[in-house]
Automatic annotation (TrEMBL):
Pfam families: URO-D
UniProt-recorded name of the protein: Uroporphyrinogen decarboxylase
Any one GO MF annotation of this record: uroporphyrinogen decarboxylase activity
PANTHER family assigned: METHYLCOBAMIDE:COM METHYLTRANSFERASE MTBA (PTHR47099)
One example of a Gene Ontology biological process annotation: porphyrin-containing compound biosynthetic process
Species of the source: Alkalibaculum bacchi
Domain (Uroporphyrinogen decarboxylase (URO-D)) ranges: 119-285
Taxonomic placement: Bacteria, Bacillati, Bacillota, Clostridia, Eubacteriales
């Protein structure tokens, strides 16, 4: 099997040649909006994205982040959000690069993946700050619903546009809904405000003939059944702080998952090679028997180069050994 075939075998609950990270089988298409907003100089200076959010890219940081103060937040008064928000146009970009990139990828060997960052929850706190956002979700739910309606409509229009321009195999949608301890919002609030809009986004992804992969490297266990109901096909970024085995049980194989290796446990100094390899093997042994699981570092890589090289080597060798020694007797496809 080539990388695409192997990845799709796992996705379909069929016998793969090896168990490994799905991301090895994808080729990313550059997102014009991301290119405009996130690919800023790593100089620590302030830059303003297309929604008006101030961002900085600190030297040595893994990426650009919002740099919000009471003075520079976009939404200063949630009751007047309509006067303050400015929605960027999706027609302002040159999509020729997107089309050319997609055309250059051999779809028989790789999956074409479109990275769609800053989901509707993240956009809400990018616009007003995390503390304000969390308070407003509880105290001003109607205003938040109305504002998120506008943000969702923009997301839907953009996904449709990307689908028309280059038809990716996967939409890699990014929206962290929690921390390593819990969800940001109470599940009841998430279900009332986020879930219905997220269902619309999922429906559009599927109507365009694409797989919906949702990145959230955080606790999502309280809402995993909702994720299945919404139509999330793949949850990427599954951290070991979730009870992954229990999630596999309650979702009944309907949610493919990527992650499971406890990166903070092994992406440290003064750790032995065997300790790193043991964590990779633990993840494969524990989560792959249920099927539809891609063992990986939830946030893609260890930041320490040596540690990461050991993880990748063990995934390659033990992931293949496990597949050979644990053949799937019958299809687990959903």
């Amino acid at each position: 099997m080539n990388l695409r075939e192997n990845a799709m075998a796992i996705y379909n609950g069929e016998q793969p040649d090896f168990y490994g990270d799905l991301m090895a089988a994808v080729e990313f298409i550059i997102d014009p909006l991301l290119e405009r907003d996130a690919l800023i100089p790593q100089d620590g200076k302030e830059y303003i994205d297309s929604w008006g959010t101030v961002k900085v890219f600190l030297p040595g940081a893994p990426g650009a982040h919002p740099h919000l103060t009471p003075e520079n937040i976009v939404i200063k008064d949630i009751e007047k959000w309509e006067e303050q928000i400015s929605v960027p146009s999706i027609d302002a970009f040159d999509y020729s690069k997107v089309r050319d990139q997609a055309a250059s990828i051999d779809r028989e060997k790789k999956l074409v993946c479109f990275f769609c960052p800053v989901g509707i929850f993240e956009r809400s706190h990018f616009l007003m700050g995390m503390e304000n956002a969390l308070i407003n979700y509880l105290e001003y739910p109607d205003e938040m619903k109305a504002m998120l309606r506008v943000i969702t409509d923009h997301k839907i229009a953009y996904i449709k546009k990307i689908g028309e321009e280059c038809h990716p195999d996967i939409i890699f949608y990014h929206d962290d809904w929690g921390t390593k301890q819990n969800l940001f919002l109470p599940p009841s609030v998430w279900r009332e405000i986020i879930k219905p809009l997220q269902k619309e986004i999922a429906d559009v992804i599927h109507e365009c003939g694409m797989i919906y992969m949702h990145h959230a490297d955080c606790i999502c266990q309280p809402i995993v059944e909702d994720m299945v109901e919404i139509g999330v096909d793949i949850w990427q970024g599954v951290i070991a702080q979730n009870d992954i085995v229990e999630i596999q049980r309650i979702t009944e194989g309907k949610l493919a998952m990527v992650g499971g290796i406890d990166a903070p446990k092994i992406d440290i100094e003064n750790i032995t090679e065997e300790e790193i390899r043991a964590e990779v093997r633990r993840a494969i042994d524990t989560y792959c028997p249920a099927g539809r699981f891609y063992p990986s570092i939830p946030n893609a890589v260890c930041y320490r180069e040596w540690n990461n090289s050991i993880v990748m080597d063990e995934l390659e060798s033990y992931g293949r050994k496990f597949a050979e020694e644990h053949p799937i007797q019958k299809t687990q496809s959903i």
